Amino acid sequence: MTQIAHNFRISTRQSQRTVRSPKLRSEAKLCITQSVARRIVWAIFWIIFQLAALIGFIFIGIVSFKLTEEQMRAEAGKFIATLNLPACDRRH
Question: Which of 22, 45, 54, 77 is the 20 to 30 Å CA partner of 88?
Fold first, then answer.
């Protein structure tokens, strides 16, 4: 066996040992779990924030553009100049 092959076998055995170590494995799982938990918490916060912004803008729109019944009737009764335009002659 060559020295390179021997070194490769030793390094792979050592890496297998570290992967199989229960302490390191549990720490890795804990790290992944915390990372996933942070992402989930951030995602929930972001969704709630976006929904709150949407509801806020809808509320602002309703409040700012709300008309009374009299205002709506007055606006509906206004003369619209575009209704009395002559029809276009398309025979050009």
Answer: 77
Question: pTM surpassing 0.85?
Answer: no
Q: Which two tokens stand for residue 53?
A: 């912004």
Could you tell me if 45 and 51 are in contact, meaning their C-beta atoms sit under 8 angstroms apart?
no
pLDDT above 80 (res 62): yes
Secondary structure string (H, E, C) spanning 7-27: HHHHHHHHHHHHHHCHHHHHH
Domain assignment present for 11: yes
Number of domains in the chain: 1
Per-position DSSP letters for 47-89, written without gaps between them:
HHHHHHHHHHHHHHHHHHH---HHHHHHHHTS--GGGGPPPP-
